[in-house]
Amino acid sequence: MLTVLRKIHPASRDSPLNHQPDPTDLLLEVLTDTGEEFVELRYHRKRTRSLSVEKGRVDQAKISEHTGVGVRVLAQGTWGFASTDRFDKQAVRRAVESARHAALASASARRNKTSALPEVELARGLFELEGTGELIARPLEESLELVMRLEAQARNASSSIQSAGCGYTEIFEEKGIVTSDGAKAWTRLVRPEFRISAVAQKDGEIQRGSESVGATGGWECLFRNNAAESLADKAAKRAVDLLSAGYPEGGRKKVLLSPSLVGLLTHEAVGHTVEADFVMSGSVAAGKLGTRVASDLVTLCDSGISEYYEGAGGSMMIDDEGVRTKNTTIIEDGILKSYLHDRESAARFDVEPTGNARAWEYDNEPLIRMRNTYVAPGDASLEEMIADTEDGLLLDGPANGQADSNGEFMFGTHEAYQIKSGKLGPLMRGVNISGVAFDVLQTVDRVGKDFVWDLGSGHCGKGQPAKVDAGGPWLSCEVIVGGRGA
Asked: Is the pTM of this model over 0.90?
């Protein structure tokens, strides 16, 4: 089905994305007569361009936009929230009054009140990440031609390929944030994403291969680690090769986890447990600050900046409360050092905010969310890690899975390779892996030196979506492997 919300055409130099006036001046005018309560105003413009092709035809071509102002008021220790899709002083003032009334109406029923927000150096000025202008100027027809060409490349890679699909998305964001205690910041960024999949069939057996990348930045950031053509080849080859792959045996095993699987473990099974709102609800990380939760080889961080190289998919210079997004060390040499905070949770824990307050749209309230979460690299090469493994599996390709507030997880993988006496065996079908995250991290005995951001595509869900990234090096550890017996 072809859905066109707006005709595709090259962006002109007069595009409002190129010449959007600074929205913080109008918001600042509203703040001058808002009273004594704490007020936060957040202008948010999000423009999305997306394309998808399947079986040689355009399935979707869409441009959408969502723009407005979110308002939070802290009155009598209670938050009130309102929003408006009109960007004028009268509409924003009405939203402020609605948020104030909501706070006052619920104040008497709230047990844990926020008396004051912690003082912190709030952002002021323009913060623009690279790549925005480049992708605005890039005609969408060029991206459509690439998507169609690569879908055909994957579909024609083998006679076993039955179908293929390819898609490309760009999310442009502009935000203006002002607060009654001094924030006045305007941010601009773009997050492109590319994905391709192929389905292979032989003798009634069906296998699927897929590859996806996502970044914050321009074309170079998106395809820094792999050219688009190589992603199409990898997706098709995986689907075909898995048709004849065997199954590994299950049980507790030594495994080498790829950077994408390290990222999945880091984000889903560790990162969510240290978000301060989950901690206050009783996650497994509650009360563990200063205690050992991992091998001393493990240092785990969450950063608003793209560490090691540019382009991580969750990059942002300020959060949605106007706080600068520093690098937060969650685990240092195996010791739990910090949780992830917004300004309210930081006040309750008597620490500085970490810049983790994020809202998906203007009409969403900010929540504590991860940005770019990773395990820091070590000093081992992958070849050394394979050679040092007597009996185990090399696993790659996150498939699906789940984790809970206790850190228990179960993840699917796409590919497995048996390792015997330091030698890598043939490809086998992916397996499910499970365990308790902190227990698994205690078993880490080697950490690779080659770092990769590898989870920048897709979204994290926590009441509302968020663009994040995660990654790390190859990791040697022990997990429970679900497989088939001999």
From this structure: yes
